[in-house]
Design goal:
Elements (H helix, E strand, L loop, with lengths): L7 E5 L4 H12 L3 E6 L2 H11 L4 E4 L5 H15 L4 E4 L15 H28 L5 E6 L12 H20 L5 E9 L13 E2 L5 E2 L7 H12 L8 E5 L10
Parallel strand pairs: 1-2, 1-4, 2-3, 4-5, 5-6, 6-9
Antiparallel strand pairs: 7-8
């Protein structure tokens, strides 16, 4: 690499919501960005808004062939990858566990867990072979990685699994100078959290409105994690709406 401008980052699901907030912060911090997702029009619009030469690549992170093509495109264009943000994800309908279909379960597992694994695996192969060697991986976890909401079994299970993937990645990456950390997000305002202002189910069955926060705070937190030298790592960070009912008993 030659200077800050040559730092290359990939943000999965980087064209909308929290992913776009992360992308915005990384571009502002001088990263050269690749964003991926399944909708070409959304990606191309986001890339134009982000500027900084942002490169959009259509990819389905739950498909091994699509992930392989994504990372081969990055290798051919840039020759390296310095940062992977595993952000893309999905949720199932908030219905009782026993009413979930197998397809609804699989959609969430594919997007949230299998996709993060496939991208991590591909990033390892690229990061361990490039010169200078190494890089950083940041996983989008959730406060659901420790504390579930009612009727959220697929999402909660995958976010618990992401916590394990983060630790295994941090351990297995040591010998290749690959650092891995996780950001656990609580109530960042997005399409996914739009219903919270109207009211969502609490653990005791009540429906209550919950405060949210600007996703730009998440973006800046990820940019800070990414700014560290590889000798230092933020293993876990929680960024949450201060007044959301999470700490204590609600």
């Amino acid at each position: 690499m030659s200077g800050e401008e040559s730092r290359i980052a990939l943000v999965t699901g980087g064209g909308t919501g929290v992913g776009k907030a992360i992308s915005t912060a990384l571009v502002a911090a001088g990263w050269t960005l690749v964003i991926c997702g399944r909708r070409r029009e959304v990606l191309e619009t986001a890339a134009g808004e982000l500027g900084g030469g942002t490169m959009p690549i259509v990819a389905d992170i739950g498909d091994p062939a699509s992930v392989a093509a994504l990372f081969e495109g990055i290798r051919q264009r840039f020759g390296r990858l310095d940062l992977l943000v595993n952000n893309a994800g999905s949720v199932a309908p908030a219905i009782p566990l026993e009413d979930l279909s197998f397809d609804q379960w699989n959609i969430v597992v594919s997007a949230n867990l299998t996709g993060a694994f496939l991208c991590t695996q591909a990033a390892f192969k690229l990061m361990k072979a490039q010169e200078p060697r190494g890089g950083r991986i940041i996983n989008n976890g959730s406060i659901s990685a420790t504390t579930p909401r009612p009727n959220s079994a697929p999402y909660t299970a995958t976010k618990h699994a992401i916590a394990g993937l983060t630790k295994s990645t941090a351990l297995d990456g040591r010998k290749y100078d690959i650092a891995c950390g996780q950001i656990d997000i609580g109530n960042a305002a997005s399409d996914m959290t739009a219903a919270m202002s109207a009211g969502v189910m609490q653990a005791d069955g009540r429906i209550a409105s919950e405060p949210t926060m600007d996703p730009a705070h998440v973006g800046r937190a990820v940019a800070h994690m990414a700014s560290l030298p590889l000798e230092a790592n933020v293993l876990t960070m929680t960024v949450m709406a201060t007044k959301m009912p999470f700490v204590g008993r609600g």
